[in-house]
Specification:
By secondary structure, this protein is mostly helical. It has one domain. It is 91% helix and 0% strand. It has helices spanning 2-20, 24-55. It is elongated, with a radius of gyration of 15 Å.
């Protein structure tokens, strides 16, 4: 159930970032920010999966 909340929150944050980053360098910054968010999300998913595997 936390997935919907997480992705809704991220989409709201990303919309705000897109509105602010209209200058040429902004899109590059947005790409790096999105990559960082994606990597953090994936790493937290892997960690939670490992924890679940260890405890069950």
């Amino acid at each position: 159930m936390h997935w919907g909340i997480t992705f809704y929150g991220l989409s709201e944050i990303n919309l705000g970032m897109i509105r602010r980053m209209v200058h040429p360098g902004g899109l590059l910054s947005l790409r790096f920010a999105l990559r960082a968010v994606a990597e953090a999300t994936l790493s937290s998913l892997v960690q939670s999966d490992d924890f679940h595997a260890m405890t069950h």
